[in-house]
Design goal:
The chain is of the alpha/beta class. It has two domains: about 120 residues, Response regulator (Rossmann fold, 3-Layer(aba) Sandwich); about 100 residues, Arc Repressor Mutant, subunit A (Orthogonal Bundle). The chain has eight helices and 14 strands. The chain has a five-stranded parallel sheet, with helices on both faces. Strands 8-9-10-11 form a four-stranded antiparallel sheet, covered by helices on one side. Helix 1 packs across helix 5. The two termini are about 25 Å apart. The relative contact order is 0.10. InterPro entries: CheY-like_superfamily, OmpR/PhoB-type_DNA-bd, Sig_transdc_resp-reg_receiver, WalR-like, WH-like_DNA-bd_sf.
């Protein structure tokens, strides 16, 4: 039986129409003990996801019968399964569209097996360490956040966060290793009326980093995904 520390043995669905890439991904996943199921179209991908109920989906966007975004939308109607997109599309707009649709990570082709497996491990760890009720305590570095009491401390001393900073930090920290877009952060933290106010996020993130990072100019935990958003790394 698998554990978050040793995620071998998970069921993973690969939705990719190029046989060579499918084989490459299957071999990489199989080498770590995962069971791999395959699909080569949007329709087949949704059928396999519904019947197999995989622990993770690796998804290409350019499929013969439609866009992989359709698979993400279909999955998100009933599942929170982690989705890693593999795509030759390297434009920021394509990445943002996939992440805003509900993908958890985005890897541009060509990619190496090592990077793919690191992303797979991170998503499995993030997803399967979460508990249904959520953790009452988030800890990283010398920072501790008590979600029940809505308090934060660093190195044992109270950490004075503004309400916006607290909401921003807890939203990111509750989804470790996941890319969160500017739009997702604006909608969650500021509300739907602030869709274009990306400067809000930048300003508050800079202030937040000064409070929680040892070196705010080279952050370890609150990482920038250039042009897209942020990723929290525990």
């Amino acid at each position: 039986m698998s554990t978050p520390e040793h995620p071998a043995g998970h069921s993973i669905l690969v939705v990719e129409d190029e046989a060579a890439i499918r084989r490459f991904v299957r071999l990489a996943l199989g080498a770590e003990g995962h069971t791999v199921h395959e699909a080569d179209s949007v329709a087949r991908g949704l059928i396999e996801a519904g019947t197999r109920r995989p622990d993770l989906v690796v998804l290409d966007l350019g499929l013969p019968d439609g866009d992989g975004i359709e698979v993400i939308h279909g999955l998100r109607r009933w599942s929170t399964v982690p989705v890693i997109v593999l795509s030759a599309r390297s434009q920021e707009a394509d990445k943002i569209a996939a992440l805003d649709a509900g993908a958890d990570d985005y890897l541009v082709k060509p990619f190496g097996a090592g990077e793919l497996m690191a992303r797979v491990r991170a998503q499995l760890r993030r997803h399967y360490q979460q508990t249904p009720g959520g953790e009452p305590l988030i800890a990283f570095g010398d920072v501790r956040i008590d979600l029940a009491r809505r308090t934060a401390e660093r190195a044992g001393q109270p950490l004075h966060l503004t309400p916006i900073e607290y909401k921003l930090l807890t939203h990111l920290a509750s989804q470790p290793d996941r890319v969160i877009t500017h739009q997702q952060l604006l909608k969650t933290v500021w509300g739907p009326g602030h869709a274009d106010d990306t400067h809000y996020v930048r300003v508050h993130m800079a202030n937040l980093r000064k409070k929680v990072e040892d070196n705010p100019s080279m952050p370890r935990h609150l990482r920038t995904e250039a042009g897209i958003g942020y990723r929290f790394v525990p």
